[in-house]
């Protein structure tokens, strides 16, 4: 198994439609995903742990995950733990508003002032936890933290120097005449080969999505990246015996 | 499959929307669900949160197993429909926001945290379609005229 460095934190919101606090979880998660920490966070719909496939159930093992619940039932935290992996951190809105002295939110469709304050407080707490989790070493094999490291080691930018310092395998590829360094590419290829994924059109999209977890891919260049990465993967596979 | 769905005059149709937070269609599904349970058919419907079904909450499972459900999904993964079925419920009608949008191309929804005007309108159109299904279910649940003897030979 390979162990790719983690750059992102997973967010799972309960989204409870019957409670204003559920609306708070949804809007707060959205704020973190879109505004506060867009480059560091990903999300999954809670029901996909059951309604989705194996890849969806691997979510909380692959990413250290923050469960955000509206009430004490803690659907997001408990279901994530039951079907995927124990969340790395957890927030319960009803507890948080009490702690912050914010009134009880109301309004399912349109939150009142207290609800909006709760969204702000929840989003801030989430962003704080994201930063904290990015500063720890996460093992995808184990689905748990394996120690601590400097956050800068995890948040590697697309500079080869950083990768060298942390010992993260990189690969340089030529994309439209430009040399581009892709962090973790050899490990991604190794992972795909171990999973018996052949270099085909079916694998192309998945390869690109995995690469995008660790590398910025310019908007509009996705197709080109996908083709080049698939080509490189084919070369990688031809050079090595498939793992059985 | 012959599930014993409650069909008395107090029948409440369960409305289960998508709980997605990343796409505008998820927001439309929720808005439509709220429109149905709060404004369009408040007495005949109630909303069950998908997260409770995922957790296996007894009360929610009981609701979907006793009453017919109308699901509103935001994407092709159809989590709401799958979860109702997984929870032992019967889906009387599954709506997909995208299908409704295809029939009302002028109402292009935008926004996730807050829908644009077209999105709200689309949700209202969808809510009306859900209401039609609710009325039909309600009608089917009314006590029948005594014609049943005909089938008894």
Description:
The complex is a heterodimer of chains A (244) and B (153). The longest helix of chain A has 22 residues. In chain A, β3, α5 and β4 form a beta-alpha-beta unit. In chain A, the strands form three sheets. In chain A, strands 2-1-3-4 form a four-stranded parallel beta sheet, with helices on both faces. A two-stranded antiparallel ribbon of chain A has the order 5-6. With 244 residues, chain A is an alpha/beta fold. Helix content of chain A is 50%, strand content 16%. Chain A has twelve helices and eight strands. Chain A starts with 8 loop residues before the first strand and ends in a 5-residue tail after the last helix. With 153 residues, chain B is of the alpha/beta class. In chain B, strands 2-1-3-4 form a four-stranded parallel beta sheet, with helices on both faces. In chain B, α1 packs across α6. The longest helix of chain B is centred in the last third of the chain and has 25 residues. The N terminus and C terminus of chain B are likely disordered. The interface between A and B is medium-sized, with 32 and 31 residues.
Chart the SSEs and their pairings.
The complex is a heterodimer of chains A (244) and B (153).
Chain A: E1 9-13, H1 20-36, E2 41-43, H2 48-51, H3 54-57, H4 59-62, E3 65-69, H5 75-83, E4 89-92, H6 93-100, H7 113-134, E5 136-139, E6 144-148, H8 151-154, H9 160-166, E7 170-175, E8 178-183, H10 185-194, H11 201-214, H12 222-239
Parallel strand pairs in A: 1-2, 1-3, 3-4
Antiparallel strand pairs in A: 5-6, 7-8
Chain B: E1 13-17, H1 24-40, E2 45-47, H2 50-55, H3 58-66, E3 69-73, H4 79-86, E4 91-96, H5 97-103, H6 117-141
Parallel strand pairs in B: 1-2, 1-3, 3-4
Helix pairs in contact in B: 1-6
